[in-house]
Design a protein that fits this description.
single chain; about 200 residues; mainly beta; 1 helix; 20 strands; about 10% helix; globular; PaaY; Trimer_LpxA-like_sf; Transf_Hexapept/Carb_Anhydrase; Phenylacetic acid degradation protein PaaY
């Protein structure tokens, strides 16, 4: 059962086609749209500002979303937020990606189809143009994102769309085996071509 908490009369909203892992925590003014995926131990704390995951967005393991009063923190359609990232009072544009352990601060805007690299620190108020690659702490735009990189990112996001469905249909709590099976199978996926840096 997902950990969902009402505060001050505001209760989270989760679309029936979205998957939220049972260990995630949703508090207050949180809106999770269609086909979203929210990973294990994610924290969406809508006790000040509104938090919105638009259709097809994913927020992976141990991510944190929070914001200031009267401000929205938004991940737009097909936004992709990597493990351990922190989003605070910001906007992540359509089909953009925020890498693992990156931090995006208040009133920052990550433009559509941009990629924020792992461990980057996007300072408050930074406006990242669409299709930009952003790296560093503090973050800076280093170049335009290529079509190949956008295709790679989009493939990864589609895998999370599929993961939401797979999780709703087949994930269940079980006891661990004590030994590996002799014929243990592997998960098989179509691997995307990783873009050159």
């Amino acid at each position: 059962m997902v950990k969902v908490y009402e505060i001050d009369g505001l209760r989270p909203v989760v679309h029936p086609s979205a998957y939220v892992h049972p260990s995630a925590v949703l508090i207050g003014d949180v809106i999770v749209g269609p086909r979203c995926y929210v990973g294990p131990l994610a924290s969406l704390r809508g006790d000040f500002g509104r938090l919105v995951l638009e259709e097809g967005a994913n927020l992976q393991d141990t991510c944190v979303m929070h914001g200031f009063p009267e401000d929205d923190t938004v991940v737009e359609v097909d936004g992709h937020v990597g493990h351990g990232a922190v989003l605070h009072g910001c906007r992540v544009g359509r089909n953009a990606m925020v890498g693992m352990n990156a931090v995006v601060m208040d009133k920052a805007v990550v433009g559509a189809e941009s990629i924020v690299g792992a461990a980057a620190f996007v300072k408050a108020g930074m406006a990242i143009p669409p299709r930009s690659l952003v790296l560093g702490a503090p973050a800076r735009v280093v170049r335009a994102v290529t079509d190949e990189e956008i295709a790679w990112k989009s493939h990864g996001t589609r895998q999370y769309h599929d993961l939401a469905v797979r999780s709703m249909q087949g994930m269940r709590e079980v006891e661990a085996f004590t030994e590996m099976e002799a014929d243990r199978r592997r998960m098989v996926f179509e691997a995307p071509h990783r873009p050159k840096n």
